[in-house]
Write a structure and sequence with these properties.
This protein has helices at residues 20-25, 45-53, 70-83, 103-111, 128-131, 134-151, 168-173, 185-195, 219-245, 250-277, 284-311, and strands at 7-13, 33-39, 59-64, 88-91, 117-121, 164-167, 200-204. It is of the alpha/beta class and 316 residues long. The chain has a seven-stranded mixed beta sheet with strand order 3-2-1-4-6-5-7, sandwiched between helices. The chain starts with 6 loop residues before the first strand and ends in a 5-residue tail after the last helix.
């Protein structure tokens, strides 16, 4: 226990036979349950966990018959924690990149009741740009910005960090079966937490990368899958939080911004048509209308973002 709270640590693992024993053995003593979720591994991950189970009753093994994705593995661990009277559920990756010495720092604000959810932030350290591979740093920064817009947590960075802790109340509120099943799970969860006005805090964490590590996030995933998921979740949050639960005029500003942006694309397409296919001068009214819609859409969207930021500024 930690500060009289029952602690579980969820360890999603897929083909982690080389690392899983080290992750489990170095778990801090205050952890009550270590929930290893084998996400359809085709190596000896589960066998190694079963050997470790013979030495302690702390270890729980959940096996997926087939690979469902890291998000699905984490959801299975969250559901087990929810159903077994766990007060705080943390997540540590099965590849050994989450430093066990930092677990108390991650869960402490949750245990004290200051916040509902904490997550590691590997970008806060002064040497983070040197320690994190450049492609990951750039990709993470882009996704962090998109996640700010989608989730409403404008103070949060390092959106892809999977080293997290969540309290009992949020464990019971979130619909885990609907959570994104792949690498965008941390982004998806932040959006869902915002709908319930969960207090979220970044915790400075040390980046831990080995030279042989290969990123599980491919360029194709970053460019297409996660941004589209964030767009879908953004509109879901607007509906759930600012229309169904508590109406806020920022949705009108977003609607006006998107509508005028759509008009600007149409007007710009008309300008291109005149420029490419006709020899006449560009229509001045068309050009002025295009400029006006661009300015209006930019202002509407910026005002909506500002309203969103103000509404969520206390969720720290």
């Amino acid at each position: 226990m930690y500060r009289r709270k029952r602690i579980s640590v969820i360890v999603p693992a897929y083909n982690e036979e080389k690392n899983i024993s080290g992750v489990v053995k170095t778990m801090p003593k205050f952890v009550d349950k270590i929930v290893v979720v084998d996400d359809g591994s085709n190596d000896s991950t589960s066998k190694k966990v079963k050997r470790l189970q013979k030495k302690t009753t702390k270890i729980i093994l959940i096996r997926h018959a087939k690979n469902k994705g890291v998000g699905a593995a984490i959801a299975s661990g969250y559901k087990w924690s929810r159903d077994n009277n766990i007060d705080i559920a943390a997540v540590m990756s099965g590849d050994g990149q989450a430093l066990p010495d930092e677990l108390s720092k991650i869960i402490d604000p949750v245990a004290k009741g200051k916040v509902d959810y904490t997550k590691a932030n590997r970008l806060l350290g002064k040497d983070s740009f040197k320690l994190i591979p450049k492609n990951r740093f750039i990709g993470n920064s882009i996704l962090s910005f998109l996640t700010k817009i989608a989730s409403g947590y404008w103070h949060i960075m390092d959106s892809q960090a999977g080293y997290t802790a969540i309290n009992k109340r949020m464990l019971s509120l979130i619909e885990w079966d609907k959570m994104y099943k792949q690498y965008g799970q941390p982004n998806d969860l932040l959006v869902r937490l915002n709908v319930y006005n969960a207090r979220v805090r970044d915790i400075e964490s040390t980046p831990c990368y080995r030279s042989q590590d290969v990123s599980g996030i491919k360029i194709r995933t970053v460019m297409f899958t996660i941004p589209f998921m964030l767009a879908r979740m953004f509109f879901w949050r607007m509906k759930e939080k600012y229309i169904l639960r508590d109406f806020h005029p920022l949705v009108l500003f977003y609607f006006a911004g998107f509508f005028t942006a759509f008009l600007s694309f149409i007007l710009f397409g008309r300008l291109l048509y005149y420029f490419i296919f006709t020899e006449s001068d560009l229509p001045k009214i068309n050009f002025l209308a295009w400029m006006l819609t661009v300015l209006m859409s930019t202002q509407f969207i910026l005002f909506a973002m500002w309203f969103d930021m103000e509404y969520n500024k206390n969720l720290r």
